[in-house]
Amino acid sequence: MPDQTRTTRRGLLGYAGAGGLGLATGAIAATQLETPASAGPQPTVPGTISPFGTHQPGVTAPTPRANRIVALDVHDDLDAAALGRLMRLWSGSIAAATQGRPAPGDTARDLAQGNVDLSVVVGWGYALFDKVGLADARPPALVRIPAFDHDRLQQRWSGGDLMVMVGAADDTTVTHTLRRLLLDAEPFATLRWEQDGSWRGLDSHQAPTTGRNLFGQVDGTGNLLPDDPLFDATVWTKTPDWFAGGTTMVVRRISMDLDTWDTLTRAEQEASVGRDLDVGAPLTGAAERDLPDFDATEDGRPVIASDAHMRLSHPQQNGGRRILRRGLNYTTYDPETGGRDSGLVFCSFQADLGDQFVPIQRRLDRGDALNEWTTAIGSAEFAILPGFAEDGWLGDTLLT
Ligand code: HEM
């Protein structure tokens, strides 16, 4: 997804040359010198994503390579004033870290790193509003995700009062930033779960690309771009007043059975989604961005199968409902069982969780061909706070 918030040095490099900017990385300099400006997409160079604005910028930033999401449970005695103190602390740390400065109190100051596309997204869980006496302020757009037939949810990957998602082009920066934020939170909350996931959103020439999940599928094509006229209504929540510019977030840990998937033919794999594996084109088209033709038939059968994932999740089949998805690939190894588990930390953002994610998910739960190889093992939902101004802090529209 093109980036609206990032201060990228990519354009500058085109004419100033890497040397002019004093870049230390020889690899980048060499690429720039060898690639004429007219030779197609230019390599993306990580920059600084401003932490300030109407929205938390990490929601719409392109999915970075390294990502970690944590949920915390607040201590029993936390009230709205204490929640405000934590939000102030976090806002200060986020403002510093994303701009490459050590967060207040940082004892490992050398790990503060600029120009790594660092972003942080903070959210509040459903029950938090009750716990701090703010039930009346809970945005109606945040509902609890209902149970689905195919779910096999585990508590260790589900729920939470607070959510922090940290992403960057560099995992060391993600690890350090998250540690600082968790230290800030120690007097207020304890860690409930932590999930990490990677994404390859840049191709071998460092040009933006959609990226692939661990089934090998191109994943994210159907997402709206931020300049699409439908984008704002799809993603940003308007009410209540204090929440204008916020959104809702779903985090589902979806285990993918790679071993049984591997036994399918390529044609069977492609039929389950309705797109080819080569470039992610719909089976009725040739290029990734070609529009699907759900009416096309061959030998009397629909070319895009009636249970294909992309048919059932497409806005046309869901009364125009859309979501903004972000997938993160995960793999874990459990030394006690010797078992490995791989899948997708499926995240989605939507203005109204109950009216967008839930009906689409219900339809997929009933009929999606992919259900044979995918199982949700974790589920959580959060209200993603509006962004904050340079002289403000997260949640200041409610807590001041
Ligand atoms: C491990 C689980 C999943 C896998 C492997 C997966 C994979 C894919 C793939 C390959 C596509 C086609 C390319 C694209 O448009 O991105 C797609 C599209 C889509 N998926 Fe999933 N998906 C998963 C879970 C979900 C869930 C849980 C939902 C929501 C409830 C969902 C909603 C959608 C939507 C809305 C589209 C775009 C449809 C369109 O506009 O054409 N997916 N998914």
Describe what you observe in this structure:
Helix 3 (80-98) packs antiparallel against helix 5. With 400 residues, the chain is of the alpha+beta class. The chain has eleven helices and twelve strands. The strands form three sheets. The protein has an eight-stranded antiparallel β-sheet with strand order 6-3-5-4-12-7-11-10. The protein has a two-stranded antiparallel ribbon with strand order 1-2. The protein has a two-stranded antiparallel sheet with strand order 8-9. Helix content is 24%, strand content 21%. The protein folds into two domains: 1-45, no CATH class; 51-399, no CATH class. The model is unreliable at 1-37 (pLDDT under 50). Strand 10 and strand 11 (339-350) form a beta hairpin. The two termini are 35 Å apart. Residues 213, 215, 217-222, 252, 254, 256, 273, 275, 280, 309-310, 313-315, 323, 325, 344, 346, 357, 360-361, 364, 370, 374 line the site of protoporphyrin IX containing FE.
